[in-house]
From TrEMBL:
Belongs to the G-protein coupled receptor 3 family. GO terms for molecular function: G protein-coupled receptor activity. GO terms for cellular component: plasma membrane. This is LOW QUALITY PROTEIN: vomeronasal type-2 receptor 26-like. The chain crosses the membrane at residues 520-540, 555-575, 587-611, 631-655, 675-699, 711-731, 743-766.
Length: 781
């Protein structure tokens, strides 16, 4: 490494630190003028000519500096943010000790999203730099669902502007900011803009606004730093308590604190004007033997200590800008070392010749500066990217103020551009201190209250997209989070709760024996089946009596057995269904019922034929007998069996879970498969019943000896009424109640046949045996 003590001049680096950027032109030209005279581009003293310049902190200083120094290809290191220049030749002649500003904007976005602030404000200077910020940031934030309540401009100080104009513009901006409903405000500016912000307490007094009740969470960019001038020294700094700011990443450098402890002015030297001016303003004292003396007041001594000053006057900790300057010095040192070690430098015969060659060709240092990569004294890598920007990232600082006008900046996060886009922002374990009016609760910065769960957003006309109303979710939909754009349907096996903010699992249900409805239907089925058995027993017991013989006892037995099986068949529809049960119960119901209806039809036909055979010479006598009844009872169920076989071969019933019919239940049911075939089965039974009903109705006025036609008419009337009402009722019900309707129809229609056909006969057999005689069956004219 080169020994800097051998350098020809102590002016190896010039730090241009003026708030007035216009002075930068003159300061830049003075570098190429004689030491005591301002004659630009005329300097014979090559020994005192600088070989690199360090400048900042404002963008205006950087731009003005590069405009002049780039003409001379002077290497430049700028520790403040400098916008991109239009000339590519100028861009390669300076390196920015400030990281990529776009990484800062992305970091602010990540920070805002982290705290879920969607309604924010922004303050930016009224210059090209501020316009560029608005142009880049607003669309990027809008894409992530964040909008701005206001974007106010910070007044720019010019020679033509007066203090009254600045205060008037500042008060207008202050009123907009403080009356806004947003609680988070991004402040994009530069180091001199802090002067205007520090006048906020004064503005609040002028406007009668209680600042502590309106103070915002300030989010300041890294270009802004705390600055203290004599006329604002005693201004209250409590308004920045709880603020968040971005800063160039830095670490504590060993010896930095001790350096300031030893720093003090030299009273017997008149050329140390800068430190004496600072000392005079910081400690509010005067020097008796200098040009800047004040005749009255406290005299300055060498006993003042910088650490006794409040941090609002002088900050002892290394800031991001200080860390950048520290790194910049070592960047030039490493570049010089590499340059002197290169082949072109060793063309000279001695070290003095090397220095002379360097002074004549200092512009070649730019090549080595841009390629610098080293670890500084705290172990962090220092290097530049292809755009000449320092690859170091940003820290997120939390400002904490104290009553003695001091403040503390605590690192609470980091923006690391070397990580992936999702991991660029990281928060530390340090708790964030918020402005006092929030009582340490996380501030909310929303246009309106959050849309609660169970509701969805509704856009408000004429308002930004961050401002919205909310509407309750429609029936059947839920919103299980806050601020949802739309409600959504639950999964098929779930249903919305009453508040429509949660999906609950549906209960699997079916018609069980244990529930009341299942128990009642089962009881009726068993009861009527027992009654049918009792009726069968009565008929068997009285099988030799005239009334049993007169009513075709074989058909009677088959009908009673069919009715008993019909009642028991209804039990197949109750209980948990299975694949086998679904196929068996529909076919069993169809065939058994067709047998019962066929028996009734056979009885009806035989009654009509029996009456017709009583006429002399009737040819119908040969049709009355067992062969006809057996043919009808065999043929009709056979046709029904063919229909059922076709049904099973085309699209048989199957086990199904109906998730849509009932809102809170999954109905385990038997799907009919082919609905057409299901209604064909019912239609065929209906056809048999209608034929039987029509024949019985026509024979209802036969003599009393053949009164069975009248009973069949009543029974068919009940049967048809039940099944005609079944269809609309079945289609209008859902879930297990559809099964209950079918079970009820089976029991009701079977009971109608049993009661209407057999109860009158049982009455005679059991209670009126005197009527059960042949004399009562004779035909009377």
């Amino acid at each position: 490494m080169m020994d800097f003590s051998e350098a020809p001049s102590s002016h190896l680096f010039d730090d241009i630190l003026y708030f007035s950027a216009d002075w930068t032109y003159r300061a830049s030209l003075e570098l190429f003028s004689p030491q005591d005279r301002f004659i630009p581009n005329y300097s014979c003293d090559m020994q005192n000519r600088p070989i690199a310049v360090l400048g900042g902190p404002t963008s205006a200083v950087g731009v003005h500096m590069t405009t002049i120094l780039s003409l001379y290809k002077m290497p430049q290191l700028i520790y403040g943010y400098t916008p991109e220049t239009n000339g590519k030749k100028e861009a390669v002649l300076y390196q920015q000790m400030f990281p990529n500003v776009n990484d800062q904007y992305k970091g602010i976005l990540q920070l805002v999203l982290y705290f879920k602030w969607t309604w924010i404000g922004a303050i930016s200077p009224k210059n090209e730099n501020g316009e560029r910020f608005v142009h880049d940031v607003v669309p990027m934030f809008a894409q992530r669902g964040i909008c701005f309540d206001f974007i106010e401009g910070i007044p720019i100080t010019t020679y033509s502007s007066s203090i009254f104009d600045l205060m008037e513009e500042g008060i207008k901006m202050f009123k907009v900011v403080m009356t806004s409903t947003t609680n988070a405000v991004i402040i994009h500016g530069e180091i001199d803009d802090m002067i205007l912000l520090r006048t906020f307490p004064t503005m609040s007094k002028l406007e009668g606004i209680q600042l502590w009740t309106k103070v915002k969470v300030w989010v300041m960019t890294a270009q802004i730093d705390f600055v203290s001038l004599p006329f604002i020294r005693n201004e209250d700094i409590d308004f920045i308590h709880g603020a968040l700011s971005f800063a160039i990443h830095s670490k504590k450098v060993l010896g930095f604190w001790e350096f300031f402890q030893m720093t003090k002015p030299t009273l017997d030297r008149d050329d140390d004007r800068f430190i004496k001016l600072f000392w005079k303003n910081a400690f509010e004292c005067s020097f008796s033997n200098s040009m800047i003396d004040e005749e009255d007041g406290v005299l300055c001594t060498e006993e003042e200590k910088l650490e006794t000053l409040p941090t609002s006057v002088f900050e002892m900790d290394m800031t991001g800008h200080s860390y950048s300057i520290y790194n910049a010095v070592y960047v030039v040192a490493h570049a010089l070392h590499t340059m002197f070690s290169s082949a072109f430098a060793f063309r000279a015969e001695n070290h003095k010749a090397q220095l002379c060659l360097l002074e004549q060709q200092f512009w070649k240092l730019n090549h080595f500066v841009r390629r610098v990569s080293f670890n500084n004294s705290v172990g962090e890598k220092v290097s530049f990217n292809q755009n000449g920007e320092l690859e170091i990232g940003f820290d997120i600082m939390n400002w904490i103020t104290f009553p003695n006008q001091s403040f503390l900046r605590v690192r609470v996060g980091r923006i690391d551009p070397m990580k992936s886009q999702r991991e660029i922002f990281s928060s530390s374990e340090e708790p964030i201190v918020w402005p006092r009016r929030f009582n340490q609760a996380l501030p909310l910065s929303l246009c309106n209250n959050k849309c609660p769960s169970g509701y969805s957003k509704s856009k408000l006309e004429g308002k930004p997209f961050c401002c919205y109303d909310y509407l309750q979710c429609p029936e059947g939909k839920v919103a299980n989070q806050e601020d949802m754009n739309d409600c959504f349907q639950c999964q098929q096996d779930q249903y919305p709760n009453q508040n429509q903010d949660l999906c609950l699992s549906k209960v699997v249900t079916f018609l069980t024996y244990e529930e009341t409805l299942g128990t009642v239907l089962t009881s009726f089925a068993l009861f009527f089946s027992l009654v049918t058995v009792g009726v069968l027993w009565i008929f068997i017991k009285h099988q030799d009596t005239p009334i049993v013989k007169a009513n075709n006892q074989n058909l009677t037995y088959v009908l009673l057995v069919a009715l008993m099986l019909s009642f028991l068949c209804s039990l197949l529809f109750i209980g948990q269904p299975s694949k086998v049960m679904c196929v068996f119960r529909q076919t069993a119901f169809a065939i058994i019922f067709s047998v019962a209806v066929s028996c009734v039809l056979a009885k009806t036909i035989i009654v009509v034929l029996a009456f017709m055979t009583t006429k002399p010479g009737s040819k119908m006598t040969k049709w009355v007998g067992k062969r006809l009844s057996m043919f009808i009872v065999s043929c009709c169920p056979f046709i029904e069996s063919i229909i059922c076989a076709t049904w099973l071969s085309i699209s048989p019933p199957f086990l199904d879970a109906d998730m849509s019919s009932m809102a809170e239940e999954i109905v385990l049911e038997c799907n009919e498969g082919s609905v057409f075939m299901f209604y064909c089965v019912l239609g065929y039974m209906g056809f048999l019943a209608i034929v039987s009903f029509k024949l019985a109705f026509l024979a209802r006025k036969l003599p009393d000896a053949f009164n069975e036609a009248k009973f069949i008419t009543f029974s068919m009337l009940v049967f048809c009424s039940v099944w005609l009402s079944f269809i609309p009722t079945y289609l209008s019900t859902k879930g297990k109640y559809m099964v209950a309707v079918e079970v009820f129809s089976i029991i009701a229609s079977s009971a109608g046949l049993l009661i209407c056909i057999f109860f009158p006969k049982c009455y005679i057999l059991v209670l009126r045996p005197d009527l059960n005689k042949k004399e009562q069956l004779r035909i009377k004219k």
